[in-house]
Amino acid sequence: MALVNKVLVIGGGIGGMCAAIQCAKQGIAVDLVEISPEWTVYGAGITVSGPTLRALRSVGVVDEVVRRGGHWSAIDICNADGVVLNTVPMAHAVGADELPPAGGIMRPVLADILSQATRATGVQVRLGLSFAQINQDADGVDVVFTDGSQGRYDLVIGADGVNSKVREALFPGAPAPRFSGQGSWRCVVPRTRRNSTIFMGATTKAGLNPVSDTESYLFVLDHRDNFDFIPAAQWPALLAELLQEFGGDLAGIRQGLLDGNSYSIVYRPLMGLMMDAPWHRGRVVLLGDAVHATTPHLASGAGIAVEGAVVLAEELVRCQFLEGALRAYAGRRYDRARLVVSSSMRMGEIEQTGGSKEEHTRVMLNAMTTLSAPI
Ligand SMILES: Cc1cc2nc3c(=O)[nH]c(=O)nc-3n(C[C@H](O)[C@H](O)[C@H](O)COP(=O)(O)OP(=O)(O)OC[C@H]3O[C@@H](n4cnc5c(N)ncnc54)[C@H](O)[C@@H]3O)c2cc1C
Predict the structure, then answer these.
(1) Atom number in ligand 1 closest to CA 12
(2) How confident is the model at residue 354 (pLDDT cuts 50, 70, 90)?
(3) Cα–Cα distance for residue pair 219/107, rounded to 1 Å
(4) pTM, two decimal places
(5) Which atom of ligand 1 is nearest to the CA of 15?
(6) Over the range 109-134, which residues count as b (16 or more CB within 10 Å of their CB) and which as e?
(7) Does residue 357 register a pLDDT over 90?
(8) 288 in ligand 1 pocket by Cβ < 6 Å?
(9) Which residues pair with 134 in a beta bridge?
(10) 159 C-alpha to center of ligand 1: Å?
(11) Ligand 1 centroid – CA 14 distance (Å)
(12) Angle at 14 between CA 8 and CA 18, to 5 degrees
C-alpha cells in the first residue's frame, strides 16, 4: 500500500504524465493540472533511447510507442555527402532484449499515447490550470489553483519543466537554468534512411532519426553567442545556411527549405540545470526537467524523467515514511541524472571549441553504457 492517498501533479509533460500514471497504478488518487488549455506539444521528433523504451515498458505504453514510432538497430556515420563511412550496431538496453535498441517518435504522438494512458488509469486531468499558492503543514499540502478552486493533498509533484514555477516558489536557493552556448534545429522530413544517420560536415554535425515508417526528424546543433529566441520567419533561411556544407540527402532538404517548404522547423536555444539533493521540501517534490534539465546530446532527458517517475512511485510503496521515500527517490536518481546533464554539457563544450573527438566519443559511450544498466 502506498504512503500517500492523494497526489497532485503540476505539469502534464512526459515526466508529469508518467508520474501520474505510476502513482494511479498504486491505487493513489491523482489530480494533474496542466497550464496549456489544449495540452498542446510542439511538433518536433524525439529520440527514445533503449533505456527510455525500457522505462516506458514499466509505464505500460512501450508497445504503442514502438508501433506508432520509428526504430533502428544501427547508426550510419556518413560524410557530408551522405556516403556511409561506418555502421555502428546498437546494443539493447540491459533487460530489454525484446525491444528495439533505439527509436524515435513525434512528440505529439508520444503525448497522445501518454495522455490516453493517463486518463485510462483514472487520473483527474484539469487543463488550462496551474497553482496560485502552495501552503503545507506536517499532514498535508493546501493548494489554491489559478481558477480559485482549492485542494488538499498528501504529496505534490512539481513536473512543470525547466522553467518550473514550483521550483521557484518552494526552492528559493535553487540554481537557475544555464544557457549552454548552442541552439537546436529540428524539422520533419520524409524518411530516406533505415538507420539513424549522422552526417559529419566540416564545421557542423547533423543527423536524421526515424520517427515513423515514413518520416524522420533532422537535427542540427549550432554554436550561438546569445540565448536568443530567433523569430520563426527567419528559421528556414538560417537552417538552409547551416546545411550549406552538406550534399546528398541534406542538400535536398536545403533546396526544399529554399523552395518554401518549412518542414515544421523548431529552433530552441539549449539550457541545462542540475539541482543538488534534496529534491523535496516537506511534501512537495520535483521531477524531470524541473530538477535536472539537459541538452539533447545523449537524447536522454525525457528518459530520465520517465525513470524518475517509475522510481518515485516505487519508493512511495516500498518505504515506511514519506521523508524516507522522497530521499530514496532522489538518492536513486541523482547520479544517473547528473551523468546525463554533465556529459551532455561536456559534449556540447567540445563541439563548440572544436575539442577532442576522442573525448567526445568517450564521454558519450561511458554515459550510454551506464544508462543501459537497469535503474
Ligand atoms: C532541443 C531538445 C531536444 C531534445 N531531444 C530529446 C530526445 O531526443 N530524447 C530525450 O529523451 N529527451 C530529449 N530532450 C529532453 C526532453 O524534451 C525533456 O527532458 C522532457 O521533455 C522533460 O519532460 P518534463 O515532463 O520534465 O518537462 P516538460 O516536457 O517541459 O513538461 C512540462 C509540462 O509542464 C507544463 N507546465 C509548465 N509550467 C506549468 C505550470 N506553472 N503549471 C502547470 N503546468 C505547467 C508544460 O506546459 C508542460 O506540459 C530534448 C530537449 C531539447 C530542449
Answers:
(1) 49
(2) confident
(3) 14
(4) 0.97
(5) 25
(6) bbbbbbbebbeebebebbeebbbeeb
(7) no
(8) yes
(9) 143
(10) 9
(11) 7
(12) 55
Comparing CA positions, the residue from 374, 272, 275 lying closest to residue 334 is 275
The full length of the chain comes to: 375
Record: fold of 6-176+272-372: FAD/NAD(P)-binding domain (3.50.50)
Ligand 1 center from residue 266 Cα (angstroms): 14
Alpha helices in the chain (DSSP H): 14-25, 50-59, 62-68, 107-120, 165-170, 235-242, 248-258, 301-318, 322-353, 357-372
Ligand 1 site, residue 301, Cβ cutoff 6 A: yes
* Residues 29-42 pLDDT 10s: 999 999 999 999 99
Q: 78: closest CA among 194, 226, 248, 219?
A: 248
Name which of 93, 9, 8 is nearest 50 in CA terms: 93
- The C-alpha cell 530489454 sits at 96
Residue 300 CB–ligand 1 contact under 6 Å: yes
Other Cβ atoms closer than 10 A to 328:
17
Q: Are strands 141-145 and 131-136 parallel, antiparallel or unpaired?
A: antiparallel
Judge if the beta carbon of residue 257 lies within 6 A of ligand 1. no
The pLDDT score that the predictor gives to residue 229 is 85
Please give the Cα distance from 197 to 104 (Å, whole number): 13
CA of 274 to the centre of ligand 1 (A): 15
What's the mean pLDDT in 43-55?
97
- How far, in Å, from the CA of 83 to the mean position of ligand 1? 34
